[in-house]
Amino acid sequence: MSLSVHLARLSLALAAALALAGPAAAQDTVSPALAAAGDEGPLRIEITGGQVEPMPIAVAPFFDEGGAGDLAARIQAVVTADLTGTDLFREIPASAHVAQPSGFDEPVAYPDWRAVNAEALILGAVSVRDGQVTAKFRLFDVFSGQPLGDGMQFDAPEAGWRRVAHKVADQVYARITGEGPYFDSRVTFVSETGPKDARLKRIGIMDYDGANPIWVTDDSALVVSPRFSPDGSQLLYTSFGNGMPQVMLMDVATVQSRPLKQEAGTMSFAPRFSPDSRWIVYSREQGGNTDVWQMDVATGAERPLTETSAIETSPSYSPDGRRIVFESDQSGNQQIYVIPADGSGEPTRISFGDGSYGTPAWSPTGDLIAFTKRNGDRFHIGVMRPDGTEEKLLTESFLDEGPTWAPNGRVVMFTRQTPGGDGTSRLHSVDVTGRNMRPLSIEGAASDPDWGPLLP
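Given the sequence above, the corresponding structure tokens read:
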């Protein structure tokens, strides 16, 4: 008897991806909690505190339901890599599988999967017709012997097969962890080539895992600090093309850029969008003084949010758009401050630990602020509450800097630079608990990441 499977259908919107292809030139516990669905709740990883123990999962070989060839295996590999890359899941190798399902709709042999200690099972199938790839999956709670949610199906142009895989992995991740997804997202960054004292830099956009990098600027001018708009359709960045730092605004689909504003005798840098895209906040230097300014995107009207003799930079909005966090040396060294986004109040200092603090980034969930901390000759990426309490350092190295958040606020990506004349910059990611730090798989040196939104 074949299982009744409901397949929800979702067509991926990949227009932006295709347009981009043209110009290219702590200790915390992860305890798998199994319970019978209905009586004690669904299969769920509960991330609390203490010992880390990844959940064992089985990913059965994805079926080719027509025209997929090796694409079925490639999609399965990306799904598995996404999940195991979180260090919340451990794959049970196929060689250990007792059950050998012969079709997507075949009844699940739960005893065989329990025999290999699988706690969750993923079944998948892929087909390709007329240049369109279709991938569907089902997720099962092995010990309760029940499906974990409905099956789903994703359709996309064949070139977007990795997005399909990320969508499947996102669904599995969200159903088991109860957290928001983040695999189907992109990161903009600065690619670096050449000697350390004469770096050539260009801006790239890539999948969250480092795959599919494309270049949206060349290396003819120094470019830094790319930042996505909330919907991912635009980029802000700083260009030194005219010899002075200037904020540029790029349409991602057309890869056309324009200066945000040009005013003689001023420099602008470190820009970010407000959550509603109405405002851009940035640093403006004039007459040797640097303050945080805000611009109305529609009208170009500007106003200062800080007016002190200190250097104030690296502003970042809270997710509700009501506050801005930034760094300032008004106390004598770099510290983190918070100010109302409408400029109605005085800045409040929130960092008071040893050393200096900079490059704050408010989490998408609003409950944490990530930062760079220097204490002595060591650098750290850390997080604290918006009131400055519960500071926690996630990393330590010769030079870690520039944190950015995954769309679900679970993972922080940053730049790590190695020491010496041959030192180079690489992107790394770390779980917000401080576990699972790993380098990003990307060719060449890279820095200054900004994690974009979850793709539609």
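Residues 1-40 have pLDDT under 50 and may be disordered. Try to locate this feature in the token string yourself.
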